[in-house]
Amino acid sequence: MIKSSLSASKYTFLLSVILAASINNVMADNSTKVFSLQSNLADNSSFPPEYYWNQFGCSGENIAPRLTWQNVPAGTKSFAVTLYDKDAPTGSGFWHRVVYDIPAQVLTLAGGVNGGALPSGAIEANTDLGKPGFFGPCPPEGREHSYVWTVHALDVAKLPIDKGSTPALVGFYLWQHRLGEASLTLLAGPR
After folding, report:
1. In this predicted model, what pLDDT tens digit does every residue of 94-129 receive, in sequence order?
2. How many Å apart are CA 24 and CA 99, to the nearest integer?
3. Dihedral of CA 137/178/124/88: which sign?
4. Are 76 and 60 in contact (CB under 8 A)?
5. Among 8, 11, 61, 117, which residue's CB has the most CB atoms within a 10 Å radius?
6. For the whole model, what pTM was predicted?
7. In this structure, what is the dihedral angle of CA atoms 111, 112, 114, 119, given to the nearest 10 degrees?
8. In what order do the strands lie in the sheet with 123-124?
9. Whole-number Cα distances in Å, 23 to 12, 15, 30, 63, 189
10. CA 47 remoteness from chain centre
């Protein structure tokens, strides 16, 4: 109980301070939740050989890992997921997968052979092979490459682009509509 020596105004002030501190702690706890991407493969680990593509001298099964994201930014209306080889000897990297218009309630891509099934409504853009799909890692012999998976939280339910768009065009619209992004890197090679 309150001591009688505390006046009503001091008591009110004290309660206000305690309430403000409590609100700040709750807000601080919520703001520390970071948009993040997880996989069945650990960040900065190597792709197992069976995940490799089955072309260009590689003999894998073309498996995409399972991807799950959490703590999405407020206002997210859809997602896009990309796989980019930043070490490809092209001068501009290489896009292995570009998926957009993933509904906001979807927080996982199951992965699997040839990328696995996509959620209803999701669209695959062209890769740097000039066609849609998933193309697993296959770095040139003797080289290690870093492959970056990124989930992009977007402020629109549908990107205003046509199916079969290039990765560069999709990237332009991702940049315009991105609320946040979360990435993880997987390594492949040397083989």
Report:
1. 999 999 999 999 999 999 999 999 999 999 999 999
2. 38
3. negative
4. no
5. 61
6. 0.83
7. -40
8. 123-124, 94-103, 78-85, 145-154, 178-188
9. 16, 12, 11, 46, 50
10. 18
